[in-house]
Design brief:
Chain lengths: 753, 222
């Protein structure tokens, strides 16, 4: 097969090109022709097709994501050192340290090939963090599946969990949290989101740009193979069609051992100060790295594609440009540092090759064995992709859905009914013990995990001397977002914010992974715009910027989209991790008073109770009051600092009942509790009102604690005392912890072993 | 008093082992797999991880590293060596210890707080524990199931070389064996991770510290 050179393209304008098979629309193909003033070569077509895919170009979401720019870019901890648009946002956390964190999706690959899809999802986000100059220090994985008893869940869940663990464990990164959620809409479209946190010194910050005429472009890491070709275009940016061809070859295959070497090698390269600019290779592979580096630089770039080391010598240049082979990085290096750079790579047994250089042409030029196959303005590939103002419209069924509240459904009344409901909820897939999943993740490696699942947030010690640390939580209740995407997104933000604060850390920044159905459906697009509006308003009110994230569209099977799932990750800073607040009730806390902070309303729509007991989804989600959330956070943080509380646990899915059960089983000690005056025991146990937490207060600190709440006029109600080996709801029922534990822990092993 | 910790390509718990050595009061020294020089250390830890990605077999490639030649030689002369998890696998592949570690019987990676009983408190790495001391430290591995033929197992038992036993077998190890030693007691292989139980802040307990304080005493005594 002869090479389709630029010269050839100029002389054969009418050649039929497979733009449609590559996922391009007719007007997009025409636009490429207009930009170039000729037909693209097959290599150029390959590059544009992957870079203009939904996944890389954000063409349907761009106009809406711009709104995140309205949020002030200052965090409560300090300034942002890098923001949206870089590989990941970077936040100054004090003492000379900076933290970077980001969440991304790897949904479609994980459905097609669960193990590798999930594994390479972890690998991709870790390289994003590494590319900023940071040492990755922890990962988290929010996962969503179809019903636990569905046969396909038994196919995808074990593979995905094993892939997350297999890759992350081999990298030596503790997995400190995440979510495992089940809902029928995720059947055929599981969500695999991966979050990574990295730490660096301020001076270590690196950015992705290719500047400096004559600087060398070095590709290092794994060799390029035929895996992942079209991953972002044909896989991540389309809906799966029934009966279509298998898309397995579009999934990448990971080698965590190579990635571990890449991490250590890259950190040593930074240390040696031999890197001018750096970019990881993820979605769209070399097409993305070359065009983005060149586009962000001040000149142009020339690359000899035949110098790229190959795993499969038969690969065509188009395939090399599109390959999403994992564990590769691209660096810009001054000529006098090349030798030192290659020496460090050799120390770590990492292959490194000079494949090009920075030019002053303003163009991205790529040759294949001396023939020019790409000659494009880099910006047109990386940033000037199509932008769609997709139509959006509040769906006609939304009113009907909101009118159908769960508050009218029959509730448990007698003591026995309440007891049975609690046991049934505790054992339900969304509320049960998740250690079948999380025990497959290493949470200890690196020796700085202060808190990990099932705590409210994961917490990592950053400095061993001062105790400075960070906490991260990810949350989203997709049912709330379905009932009202604006409020649902705010509730996800509020829950994540609260989870960070309950551990004693000050929430400072947000990353989000916006998982939605097809943007070509106006109803989905409306959900998306509403969720963004909710996040923007919420972040403004809480004073936290969105530092980065990811959009995943086309999460639907046929006509059924997933629940709108804007997963929100909140990062918090704690000046001394030794004062962290855990969730468990321990022997040392016997006799501590339990207080419920916040107000409980008759809010049952979208709750776990409605889902599990009635299979019902309708009504309006709980009200969200971010000013109250802020007050609650202040109380939790101050109480932690002043030693007024020894345990705290947020109230969310499953209500106060679930909060108490989790705290009791975590620490092994029970509680005697009562419903506050005037509150119906059922609502006390199962309502899912936001802005609440249960705290354990030592008797000696009770007055100081209640004085603080009173001074802030924040609702606080004594609901019980930590004691014994049962959960005793006075005048109602008493459940032995052994029985609760049995119900709570049996569900996943029974379904999956 | 220096404890050296080897870093192989793919070692993961090397920094943790160095931290544990420092917490115990030793000077922690980083050793590089490609360098046969042990830099004058008094004891060596082969840390956990997935050296060489566990490709071929766990520990099978690492045992050919230049640093291992020196370690194998010096172990024969009495140098205290502790192989943790992947390090235990390397010691078995190096034939410094008998038996092998195969995939967990449930075929999954497992990370949990594990109860153990110290069966032999006379080795270089366990003298600070009481006889039959029960401890809880971190277990995390994929290939943690200890196997050996019956004769070898009988010999290990007979010679008191079973150093630690699981209370509640988590991975199918024969006779609940979590750790063993060589005849002289200076080389110990342990599947669970004592280096992750040296601080209350980050570990389940501080029960793992004894391995590191034991070797300090053993070195001073010799």
């Amino acid at each position: 097969m002869s090479t389709d050179t630029v010269t050839n393209a100029e002389s054969t304008p009418d050649v039929e090109q497979p733009w449609a098979d590559l996922g391009l629309k007719p007007d997009e193909y025409q636009r490429i022709r207009d930009i170039l003033g000729r037909r693209p070569t097959s290599c150029e077509l390959a590059m544009y097709s992957v870079m203009w895919s939904e996944h890389c170009s954000y063409k349907s979401s761009k106009v809406h994501l711009r709104r995140f720019g309205e949020i002030p870019q200052e965090t409560p901890a300090g300034k942002m050192l890098a923001g949206i648009g870089e590989n990941a946002g970077v936040i100054d956390i004090g003492e000379g340290y900076a933290v970077t964190f980001k969440v991304e999706s790897h949904n479609h690959p994980s459905y097609v090939e669960p193990y590798q899809g999930a594994a390479t999802g972890v690998g991709g986000i870790v390289r994003d963090i590494l590319a900023m100059g940071a040492r990755p220090v922890a990962v988290m994985d929010p996962l969503r599946f179809g019903p636990l008893d569905a046969p396909d869940t038994k196919r995808v869940l074990p593979g995905i969990v094993s892939g997350v663990g297999g890759y992350g464990n081999s990298l030596g990164l503790p997995n400190i949290g995440g979510e495992v959620v089940f809902d029928p809409t995720y059947l055929g479209n599981p969500l695999v989101n991966a979050l990574c946190v990295g730490v660096m010194r301020h001076e270590d910050l690196h950015l992705a740009n290719a500047t400096g005429l004559g600087n060398q472009i070095i590709l290092y890491g794994a060799k390029t193979g035929g895996d992942g070709i079209g991953g972002v275009s044909v896989l991540a940016s389309e809906t799966f069609a029934e009966g279509g061809p298998t898309k397995r070859p579009a999934v990448q295959v990971g080698d965590p051992f190579m990635e571990k070497l890449l991490i250590e090698c890259t950190l040593e390269l930074f240390q040696a100060e031999v890197v001018e600019g750096i970019q990881d290779l993820g979605g769209a592979g070399l097409s993305c790295a070359t065009s983005e580096l060149a586009s962000a630089g001040d000149g142009g770039m020339h690359v000899s594609l035949d110098k790229v080391p190959l795993r499969d010598a038969s690969l065509a240049p188009e395939e090399i440009l599109m390959s999403e082979s994992q564990e590769r990085m691209m660096a810009v290096v001054t000529p006098d540092n090349v030798e030192a750079f290659l020496k460090i790579c050799a120390k770590w047994d990492v292959q490194a090759d000079v494949i090009g250089e920075v030019t002053d042409t303003g163009k991205l030029e790529i040759d294949w064995h001396g023939e020019r196959v790409v000659d494009v303005p880099p910006r047109s590939v990386a940033h000037d992709g199509p932008v769609y103002n997709r139509p959006f419209e509040r769906p006609s069924w939304q009113d009907e859905l909101q009118a159908d509240g769960a508050e009218k459904l029959p509730r448990a009344k007698t003591a026995e009914e309440l007891r049975d409901t609690l046991l049934r909820l505790v054992a339900s897939p969304n509320l049960c013990d998740k250690s079948w999943v999380t025990d497959q993740y290493d949470r200890y490696v690196l020796g700085n995990s202060v808190l990990a699942q099932p705590e409210d947030s994961g917490m990592i010690r950053v400095d061993e001397t001062s105790g400075l640390g960070v906490a991260v939580s990810t949350d989203c209740n997709g049912r709330f977002a379905k009932l009202d995407p604006y409020t649902g997104a705010k509730l996800a933000l509020a829950e994540s914010f609260r989870n960070v604060a309950t551990t004693g850390a000050r929430p400072v920044a947000v990353t989000d992974c916006l998982n939605f159905g097809s943007p070509e459906d106006p109803a989905v697009m409306w959900q998306f715009t509403e969720a963004i509006r909710g996040l923007v308003d919420g972040c403004k009110e809480l004073g936290m910027p969105v530092t980065g994230g990811n959009v995943s569209f086309y999460n639907q099977t046929g006509e059924t989209p997933i629940l709108p799932t804007p997963v929100v990750g909140v990062l918090g800073v704690i000046d001394d991790v030794t004062r962290r607040t855990p969730i468990g009730f321990t022997t040392a806390m016997e006799g501590h008073q339990l207080y419920l902070l916040g107000e409980t309303a008759e809010e049952l729509s979208g709750s776990e109770w409605a889902h599990v007991v009635h299979g019902h989804l309708g009504g309006r989600p709980p009200a969200v009051d971010l000013a109250a959330e802020q007050q609650l956070a202040d109380i939790l943080i101050n109480a932690s600092r002043d030693g007024l509380i020894d345990a705290a646990h947020d109230v969310s899915d499953g209500g106060v009942a679930q909060t108490l059960v989790e705290s009791a089983l975590r620490g092994g000690v029970g509680a005697r509790v009562w419903a506050p005056d005037g509150l119906d025991p059922f609502l006390f146990l199962f309502a899912e009102s936001a802005g609440r937490a249960v705290v354990a207060v030592p008797r000696t600190e009770e007055v100081r604690f209640t004085d603080m709440c009173t001074a802030r006029r924040f609702p606080h109600t004594r609901i019980g005392v930590i004691t014994g080996d049962t959960l005793d709801l006075q005048d109602q029922f008493e459940l032995p912890l052994t029985e609760l534990r049995e119900a709570w822990t049996a569900t996943l092993p029974n379904a999956l072993n | 008093m220096k404890i050296g910790v080897v870093t192989f390509p793919g070692s993961l718990d090397d920094a943790d082992a160095r931290r544990a050595a420092a917490v115990a009061g030793a000077e922690a020294v980083a050793l590089w797999h490609g360098d046969a020089d042990l830099l004058g250390v008094d004891a060596v830890v082969l840390p956990g991880g997935f050296s060489y990605g566990d490709y071929l077999r766990a520990g099978a490639i690492s045992r050919f590293a230049p640093v291992m030649e020196t370690i194998i030689k010096k172990a024969g002369e009495g140098l205290p060596v502790l192989g943790i998890c992947n390090g235990f696998q390397v010691l078995c592949e190096s034939h410094l210890l008998p038996g092998a570690l195969i995939k967990n019987h449930h075929r999954k990676f497992v990370c949990k707080d594990q109860r153990l009983r110290i069966e032999n408190n006379t080795t270089a790495w366990t003298s600070d524990y009481d006889a039959n001391h029960e401890i809880t430290i971190v277990l995390k591995n994929q290939d943690g199931s200890f196997v050996a033929d019956e004769a070898t197992l009988d010999r290990l038992e007979g010679e008191g070389r079973v150093v630690a036993r699981y209370l509640g077998n988590p991975n199918g190890s024969y006779r609940d064996i979590a750790g063993i030693s060589n005849e002289r007691g200076n080389v110990v292989g342990l599947m669970p991770h004592p280096e992750h139980a040296v601080e209350n802040l980050t570990g389940p307990t501080t029960d793992g510290l004894g391995f590191f304080t034991s070797v300090l005493k053993a070195v001073v005594a010799s």
